[in-house]
Design brief:
Strand content: 25-35%
Radius of gyration: 16 Å
Mean pLDDT: 93
Helix content: 25-40%
Number of strands: 8
Number of domains: 1
């Protein structure tokens, strides 16, 4: 029987807009080098802020922050979005970094084949995070409720369904 724990986390799912279109335009070496740079930017920002990168899947990344680091995590994610969007603009790629975050209980542990196990998280919270509607940076009501009042000011209410989006994001 595999060992696992249940814990509450801020679960963040991010990906790049227009990635499939971009990958049809440039060769796989350029894609590899581009994603290598993106992964390094993500690693620098997330790891320095106490977050954990669970996994990369092509242009997507699954990230978590512990229950006590949610505000720090949200601020780091805003920085991350700015850095990746600026990088894409600098290299003239029409792509935006999309961030979706939800808070709640997950199951976490080592999972995989008999010979290779990796840390991963599972549960409805992960699914909700991945499917939140977002045009830039959105968090669920559950995540918003965990924030300190000063961090809440970085978001505005967006309906329906209720999510909170970055104050500088336009509704589409």
């Amino acid at each position: 029987m595999e060992k696992f724990i249940q814990k509450k986390l801020l679960v963040v799912f991010c990906d790049l807009t227009n990635y499939a279109k971009l990958s049809r335009k440039i060769d796989e070496i350029e894609i590899f080098l581009y994603l290598s740079n993106i992964y390094e930017i993500i690693g620098d920002v997330i790891e320095s802020s106490g977050g954990q990168i669970i996994k990369f899947i092509g242009d997507a990344v699954l990230i978590t922050f512990g229950e006590s680091d949610i505000d720090k995590g949200i601020i780091a994610l805003k920085k991350l979005k700015t850095e990746i969007d600026s990088y894409n603009k600098k290299i003239k790629y029409e792509s935006q970094f999309i961030i979706k975050a939800h808070f709640g209980q997950v199951v976490a542990g080592m999972i995989g084949t008999k010979n290779k196990k990796m840390y991963d998280i599972f549960g409805n919270v992960v699914n909700i995070s991945a499917t939140l509607p977002s045009n830039g940076f959105a968090i669920s009501v559950e995540a918003f409720r965990q924030l300190k009042p000063e961090t809440r000011k970085l978001f505005k209410k967006h309906t329906p369904p209720i999510t909170y989006i970055s104050v500088d994001e336009k509704h589409k």
